[in-house]
């Protein structure tokens, strides 16, 4: 029995989109491959464009972190216990009020108080790194970054 046959139940044929050998795979950079239909090539190019990172605005993370949203955010549960917590912050559930009065459910990340200069520097560096990445993320399973 060949390696390819062993990958599928014996009662079924391999799916039609499976090629006979791994060398038939079209590498992502190969645009003119005769093995791709025009529809497949169009779908591939669309997916590639969506996955391409756009250049960041310089200082965008710092600018977003300086936008004080405290007056527009309310915690859902006023308990002092966070719903979730991490290395340097606690996360609460709350509501964000937009300019037009629309309310959106949000996660509120509250930094833990520390009094050590080296640790403060480390937390600030990590937070800027996190925000820099988070600003550009666009996925239905990832919360949007609104500001700090």
Automatic annotation (TrEMBL):
One of its GO terms (molecular function) is ATP binding. SUPFAM superfamilies: Protein kinase-like (PK-like) (SSF56112). Residues 1-63 are annotated as: Disordered. PROSITE patterns: PROTEIN_KINASE_DOM (PS50011). Residues 74-148 form the Protein kinase domain. This is Protein kinase domain-containing protein. It comes from Macrolepiota fuliginosa MF-IS2.
